[in-house]
Automatic annotation (TrEMBL):
Substrate binds at residue 585. Keywords: FAD, Flavoprotein, Signal. It comes from Podospora appendiculata. The active site is at 587 (proton donor), 630 (proton acceptor). It holds the Pfam family GMC_oxred_N. This is Glucose-methanol-choline oxidoreductase N-terminal domain-containing protein. Its cofactor is FAD. Belongs to the GMC oxidoreductase family. Residues 118-141 form the Glucose-methanol-choline oxidoreductase N-terminal domain. Gene3D superfamilies: FAD/NAD(P)-binding domain, Glucose Oxidase, domain 3. GO terms for molecular function: flavin adenine dinucleotide binding; oxidoreductase activity, acting on CH-OH group of donors. FAD binds at residues 48-49, 120, 282. The lineage of its organism: Eukaryota, Fungi, Dikarya, Ascomycota, Pezizomycotina. Coiled coil: none annotated. Residues 1-21 form the signal peptide.
Amino acid sequence: MVLLRLLVLATHLAAVAKTVALPHDASVKRQVSQLRDSYDFIIAGAGTSGLTVADRLSEAFPTKSVLVVEYGTVEYAPGVFDPPEVVWSGSGHLASSFNFQSLPIPDVLNKTALTFGGKVVGGSSAINGMFADRGSRYDYNAWDQVQAGSPEFDGLKSNDRWTWDGLYPFFKKSITFTAPPVAVAEKQRYTWNATNFGGGTTPIYLSFPEFQWGDHHLLRAAWRDMGIWVNQDCAGGDKDGICWVPNSQHPVTARRSYSGLGHYADVKDSRKNYDLLVKHQVTRVIYPNGNPRSGPPLVEIRSLDNATSPLSNLTATADVIISAGVFHTPAILQRSGIGPAPFLRTAGIPVVIDLPGVGSNLQDHSGPRITWNYTIPGNFSPMPDDMLKPAFAADALAGFNETPARGPYTLAMSNSAIYVPLPNMTIEYSPILDKIRRISAAANGSSEHAARYLSPDQRSDPTLVAGYQHQLAVIADLLANPKAPCLETAFTTGLALSLMLLHPLSRGTVRLDPKDHLQMPLLDYRSASNPVDFDLHLVHTRYIRRVIQTPTMQQYGTVEVLPGANVSTDAQMLDFVKDQMVFSYMHACCTAAMLPRSKGGVVGPDLKVHGARGLRVVDASVFPMLLSGHLSMTAYAVGEKAADIIVRQWRKEWAMKEQE
């Protein structure tokens, strides 16, 4: 019965994919003239969180109208490794995306960070690596710690807090997990705890692929040689050790599962109150007479298909929700006059709300990679270079189109990783924690005061400095926890391992381009501006190099290529890290942080922008701090929890109005 149900779902998904690929789906709006006179809710951005909220609001309030305005359009979003790719090569053939390049990073050889964002219905869930993990419970509890100190956060009931316990039900609600068939589970040695995934029915599908490359279990054995324990399941908040991680893909077809399908295409035909306007940019929100207490604001948009068409204002009667992503959300707010007052004045934008945290607190995962070669042939089969053999490639393509799908194309990029706490990597971790704590506690004027590690335009703002000091103190405690991961290394084939710093101390900024406010915002990543990040990168690199010397790897004569045998001193290691640094693993966050205003926050626990009526932010920009995992599952959970908050509020308000 379960298999039959999944086969029906697979057929439905294939039909949906064909529908979504059509450029003229009648349900999609392309001109302002097709819209209603007003909407109850307007959402800026059809991304991971935005479509989650739109789905839930249109479901909860069938007599209320919901509009989503999206910069991109409806496209088919292939998986990370789908035909016609022959060897996995990244995101070259994925759905449309924004390409962001940062300003030069002075502390790392003036290099620049390159990152991406989805420019399509579905947002970054349409282009990400499909790695469907959650953070550690300690990450979300750390959010709660940095939010402390304000009545609006301290007075919350336990279920309303943004802790692990407060988010866990929404993690489970946000997805549908399907266990692999017994034969596949035994072949690949998959383990999981079904309780942690719950019995959700949301059509955001998570599953384990039936395929692995031939050397995968070799590396898992090498990690065990190093004493890393095998965690049965890492989705329940306990996330240290070797973990299997499901992919965001349908369990039968192995096609990408993302918000453009699960929260739009799958529901649009039954929701007459749910409109989607594509190829339009939300430029700003406008408060009548510049009074942010008079909301909700108007939403100003422009057509991207017709540059000569006039700007249009849309009216919301309940809430405007900005969900444009980590880089575009602060840009919309800044164009609206909501942001750091000194910068807004410099950019010629009238100040509506002086909110220094808008575009501040930028964080992303970063790190170098190590590589090696085998000098003794191993019986690893199949391997990626087998895809260059015509017969193997043809069979891989045929297998992908079978029902259920099989073969290499069912594996996205990776579905396994190690997560290692700092105390488990080195016995010399205390000096690193001491450095962080000294910076956090240093008095103003001290050479170690936290302000010196912020950008020059932020050092004089007491709220940003106070918030950064508090974050550093919380991160020090997080890094001291022997169960809280500091490093992630995902398994990918290719004789290389990436070393991901999970809790960076450096903070960057996002600002409008002062020459053209509608162009791509300027990203100042400021990676390793806090030098303790280098200390952590060095610990990670030394630790991961040990895998090459394990008995499992040495039986194949493994030889290190990077950093290389000649790299041994701290100075040489530091040069290696700077030279090989990847500045973004596409996990940027935190630029409209959910924190008290006194600590540089932009939104409160109800996701309302501080001081602005009828305006909320719901996307990864509201994360207070980066977490030990990839971001999509948390973005879905934040969208679910936000929708729950909004639904409860408006049910209460509209019920009271009906009684008057």
